[in-house]
Amino acid sequence: MLLQMNTIFISIVIEALPFILIGVLISGIIQIFISEEFIARIMPKNMILAVIFSSLLGSIIPACECGIVPITRRLMLKGVPLPAAMAFMLTGPIINPIVLSSTYIAFGNSWKMVFYRAGLALVTSIIVGILLKFFVKESPLKNSTLEHIHYHSFKEKIDGMLKHSIDEFFSVGKFLIIGSLIAAAVQTFISTATLVQIGSGPFSSHLVMMGLAYILSLCSQADAFVASSFRNSFSEGAILSFLIFGPMLDIKNTFMLLSTFKANFVWKLTAIITITVLIVTILV
Asked: Which residues contact 10 (CB under 8 A, 6 or more apart)?
């Protein structure tokens, strides 16, 4: 049992680590090279348009659900509104080309699941972003302080970017370890077969697949291959709930969110995402 848990733990960490590194590097680039004025210029003033714009922006950044957290934090510190930042955070791990390509391959070169996954992820992120506008009235960040350091040369900027990236890595890295350890323990001691038996009903199947996605804590680049293995056991809608919910929320990602955002906000976000994904995928 312990050997199995150790193997799962290491695999989760190894799977997530490259994307954490990408995430903190992008975070460092945003901190040093992108100004608040630039963010203000490109961000639509209308809240709904800003949410839609940010949702689509996620398609160009190859980050997983862990790597996207430091990027989101940095964007918020630079002035991106909460609804738009959350919409970006939720779609980034799903609609980027790497994830959609793996989904296409996993489901037998079928575009249907690719379009469903991307479309429902966009719908979910937009709904969640808009709802947060009404349910969250203050900054959810634990630390809202933005450093203003003036760099006089390109070399100083690169040094500053790397320093920010390293600080960010060690800040979020420990939560990745804790989350991965808990995810490995849950996977080891909770039988997947039991969950499959519970999820035999049309409604419960969605909940079970969402719970499974949360427990397995797979990186979105690989989760489609696991999801496709359940095609004979679950409906298309239930499988989509797995593919959408997992990259938005899982065990390791929850710990990383708690490292960045206030706990009360994380629980609100979790509830809104869960309900939205459940409703959207049931309606498919």
From this structure: none
Pairwise pLDDT comparison (273 vs 195), residue with the higher score: 273
* Distance, CA of 179 to CA of 201 (rounded, Å): 30
The domain segmentation of the chain, as residue ranges, is 2-282
What's the mean pLDDT when you consider all of the chain? Answer: 83
Helix (H) or strand (E) holding 213: helix 204-216
Q: Is 141 helix (H, G, I), strand (E, B) or coil?
A: strand
Specify the pLDDT at position 112: 92
Q: Angle 2-33/68-77 helices, nearest 10 degrees? A: 30
List, for residues 136-186, the tens digit of each pLDDT value. 988 899 876 655 556 667 777 788 778 877 877 776 677 678 767 876 786
Q: Quick one: average pLDDT of 205-216?
A: 88
Percent helix, strand and coil across the chain, each to the nearest 5: 75, 0, 25
- Token output for 278: 């459940």
Q: Say how many Å lie between the first and final Cα of the chain, rounded.
A: 39
> What 3-state class would DSSP assign to 230?
coil
- Spatial distance between the Cα atoms of 33 and 11, rounded to a whole number of angstroms: 34
